[in-house]
Amino acid sequence: MGQALSWLAEQDPDRIAIVLDDEVITRRDLDRRANRMARAYAGFGVGRDDVVAVVLPTSLEWFVAVMAVWKLGATPMPVSSRLPDAELNPIIELADPTLVVGVAEGRLRTRRAVVPAGYEADAAIDASPLPPAVARYYRAITSGGSTGRPKVIVNHQPSVVDPDERMPGMGRDAVVLVPSPLFHTAGFSASLNGVLHGNTVIVMSRFDPGRFLDLIDTHRVTYVQAVPTMLHRVWRLPDEVRAAHDVSSLDLVFSTGGPFPAWLKKAWADWIGADKILEIYGSSEGYGSTIVTGEESLRKPGTVGLPRFGPPRILDDEGCDLGPNDVGVIYFKRPAEPNYHYLGAESRIRDGWETLGDMGYVDEDGYLFLVDRRVDMIVTGGENVFPAEVEAALEQHPAVRSSAVIGLPDDDLGQLVHAIVDVGSDDAGVSEVDESELRAHLATRLTRYKIPRTFEVVTELLRSEAGKVRRSQLRSERLAGSAVNGRAGEDDDHAKRTRAQQ
After folding, report:
1. Pick from 388, 369, 401: which is nearest to 146 by CA?
2. Domain annotation covers residue 286
3. One-character DSSP codes across 36-102
4. CA-CA distance, 259 to 229, in Å (whole number)?
5. Contact 172/200 with Cβ under 8 angstroms?
6. Burial of 116 (0-12, 13-18, 19+ CB in 10 A)
7. Which terminus, N or C, of the chain has the lesser number of Cβ atoms within 10 Å?
8. What proportions of the chain, in percent to the nearest 5, are helix, strand and coil?
9. What CATH number is given to the structural domain containing 443?
10. CA-CA-CA-CA dihedral for 392, 398, 401, 402, to nearest 10
């Protein structure tokens, strides 16, 4: 992968590789900076198959660092630069990297080599291409999962690439827009695949739906990889704002990283064409993925498509196979040679089949439908409620920017369905909506027991830019808040009151 950048720079040195806010870098300049940085990192002891933690914000510096790591045949581990020390230190201790890029001396609990953000390699260091070097593992991705405990997912693919390979939507003259954070799998893959396959990559340092459309229009973007949360925020823009932008250059909008509600997918299909929409269900672990086109999505609303590597098994709590349309835990066949390993977690395996903990079903034609993660399922009055379904219905309301649905303890029902509803807007305004309006909206979309008993109105986004929501954390915070306010053991009374907070 490091050699590929040098090869591309030789072919067309002045072609723009990356546009990031007001900064632009050509292939030649990116390659020379990465070559110089690689030699600087080698001076800190980085060698083949070492792990290097890259704790930098979205920036050209981030790309230089990752490319430099690959040029040494080492493994980059991107980490969010926003993590507080209490979260960063356990990850660093778990992965034990040779070098940590982007943190100041003294910030880590254990002593190791570090370089701060803004570090520049000495201009006297040789900037010519390095000898080819291949890492055994091309990336390590950090994740808190649903538990919040840190884990690292080490992908077993070596750091090799064919720059001439044509990937879906990434032709030779593609212009790739990356709105996702680079430490997340979606942003990492889209941006670096774009660069290493010879495309011009437009990167957003911070997602803004209006700016997203501006960039498509200005740069004639052909390929976008985004999480559904972003596509929802774009769709919430006024009709006249969307209509004022020319998005006809788009060849493919690739969605991943979270549930893509059927209603939202149809809205986008009606806008840009179903043939330009592709969704993939998968994971950083890299197994058991499915893929679905826009046409299939319209024909089978809600499906995530046909499995790419063999049909899954849908199992009940006792491990028995379920039939078509029966909801259970989704298992995929574990390959003889696993394509990843965890640091800080154990794979969930049953008789050679592996699960991520997601629940769903397969229809008569073999199409997979997701329901939710098992850990997030709410049992209320003996009925199963899947938060993702309720959230998708809530977010069809024009006042709702994002939402999270959790279960709170109840002496009578076991759990009450509680909805946290974000009514903020991207222009810093606040939408007006009350509980009765939300109930009326949901009554036409959900059966009665799925409608939340309580609503909490907030004005901050409940999903990260990567499209993730930590329902377990939100639930713990609310239970802790009940105890702090002297209401421990009185969750029923607490939950029966609608709360509004900012």
Report:
1. 388
2. yes
3. HHHHHHHHTT--TT-EEEE---SSHHHHHHHHHHHHTT-EEEE--TT--HHHHHHHHHHH--SEEES
4. 9
5. no
6. middle
7. C
8. 30, 25, 45
9. 3.30.300.30
10. -20
Q: What are phi and psi of 99, to 5 degrees?
A: -140, 145
d(CA 13, CA 24): 13
Q: CB neighbours (10 Å) of residue 23?
A: 11
At 272-323, the pLDDT tens digits run: 999 999 999 988 898 888 999 999 999 999 999 999 888 999 999 899 999 9
* Of 151, 1, 181, 185, residue with least CA distance to 75: 1
Query: Rounded to two decimals, what is the model's pTM?
Result: 0.84
493 shares a domain with 371: no
Dihedral of CA atoms 181, 146, 256, 292 in degrees, nearest 10, equals 170
- Distance (Å) of CA 88 to CA 100, 107, 373: 11, 10, 26
Query: Does 500 have pLDDT greater than 70?
Result: no
Contact between 256 and 292 under an 8 Å Cβ cutoff? The reply is no
**Other Cβ atoms within 10 Å of 37 Cβ, number:** 26
Looking at the chain, the number of H-run helices and the number of E-run strands are 14, 28
Domain of 358: which CATH number? 2.30.38.10
Residues 451, 393: Cα–Cα separation, whole Å = 10
Query: Residue 143 is part of a domain; what is its CATH number?
Result: 3.40.50.12780
- Residues with Cβ within 8 Å of 320's Cβ and at least 6 positions away in sequence, in order, are none
DSSP labels, 153-176: EEE---S---TT--BTTB-TT-EE
Give the model's confidence band at 483: pLDDT under 50 very low, under 70 low, under 90 confident, else very high.
low
Q: Are residues 297 and 416 in the same domain?
A: no
Number of structural domains found in the chain: 3
